[in-house]
Amino acid sequence: DRDTDKKRIEELLEENMVLEIAQKQSMNESAHLGWELEQLSKSTDLADSEKSFVFELNECASSRILKLEDNQSLQNTIQELRDASLTSRESSLKFVELEKENQQLSKKIEKLQNQIEKEKQSNQDLETLSEELIKDKEQLQVVMETLKADKDRQIKDLKQENDHL
């Protein structure tokens, strides 16, 4: 019986190793083994050696189930990290695109600011020129009035001289 039990334990251990590789199957088979162990422990006509075998087998199956659950938890964590990494990469790519767009907009803004500065300078130059032209016009008007007054005086003088002659 013990040899048979030992062989059975070895077979179950091999089965459990296979179960670790294929997790879904292993979870179902481990649950089934647990059920079988419970059925065996419930039976009253088991010998003490069979009870200890069942207990050992139950502990082994339980530890395998825990390991499989841990593996599943680790795989879930790995998947979450992969998803987060992909999201991070996508965000990084979007950030790079936005940064490029921002640089382009900054260059456009700089060009527009330069154009505005040129326009301001041009307007100042035109204002200065306009002021100079207004001063020149005023001076020319003064000169014209002076010339007109001189002309009128000369005409008057010439008329007087003519009358005198």
TrEMBL record:
<keyword id="KW-0175">Coiled coil</keyword>
<dbReference type="GO" id="GO:0030705">
    <property type="term" value="P:cytoskeleton-dependent intracellular transport"/>
</dbReference>
<feature type="coiled-coil region">
    <location>
        <begin position="95"/>
        <end position="164"/>
    </location>
</feature>
<dbReference type="GO" id="GO:0031122">
    <property type="term" value="P:cytoplasmic microtubule organization"/>
</dbReference>
<dbReference type="GO" id="GO:0008017">
    <property type="term" value="F:microtubule binding"/>
</dbReference>
<protein>
    <submittedName>
        <fullName>DAPLE protein</fullName>
    </submittedName>
</protein>
<dbReference type="GO" id="GO:0005813">
    <property type="term" value="C:centrosome"/>
</dbReference>
<dbReference type="GO" id="GO:0005737">
    <property type="term" value="C:cytoplasm"/>
</dbReference>
<dbReference type="GO" id="GO:0051959">
    <property type="term" value="F:dynein light intermediate chain binding"/>
</dbReference>
